[in-house]
Amino acid sequence: MKIIFLNLSFLFLIILNDSVPGVAYQIGDVATDFSLPNVDGKMVSLSDFADAKGFIVIFTCNTCPYSVAYEERIIALDKKYSEEGYPVIAINPNDPAAIDGDELSDMKVRAEEKGFTFPYIQDVGQQIYPQYGATKTPHVFVLQKDGTDNIVRYIGAIDDSSRSPKEVKKRYVEQAVDALLAGKSPTTTKTKAIGCSIKTL
User: Does the reported pTM lie above 0.90?
Assistant: First the structure.
C-alpha cells in the first residue's frame, strides 16, 4: 500500500511540474514556435520571419503597470534590433476572462495608441507561456536561430530598473543580443523577471 502511495505521489509531482509555469525552458533549449492572432487580424509565427537571426520574445500585457512602464523601452528594442535581425515579438499571456483590459480588441487599441512597431499577439488558450516558462509580465526570452530551431540564449528581465529608464545601469537584453550579433555567447544568460503575475482563471 505504501509503495502504491509513493508511486502516485511521484506521478502527481511529475504532472504538477509539467503544468506549472516556470518549470520550462533552460538556456540552450529549443523554443516552441506558435501561430497566434496579432492585433492586425493576421496570425503570427516565428517561422514567418525568414530573414531573422533570432527574436526578442516578450510576454507583456495592457494592464500590468510594470509592462506599461517598459512600453517605450520595448519599442526602442524593436527599432534598434529588428533591422539587425532580432525583431521583438510581444505576446499577451493573460486570460482576458480573468482581467479587464486584455482582450485582443484592447490590445489593438493600445498598439495603435503607442505606435507599436512589432507584432502584439494573444496567447489564446494560454498554451504558449507555460511552455516557455514565463511567470511575469514582462518576461523576456531571447532566441537565436539555428537552422529551423530557435535556441534560448537569455531569459529574464529587460534591464535592471523596472520603474524608470533613467535608473537603468544594466541592459540585459541589449547585452545579450549584442553578444549574439558579435558571434559570442551572452555573459548574463538568466535574470529575475520583475512584474505582475500572469492572470489565469
Answer: no
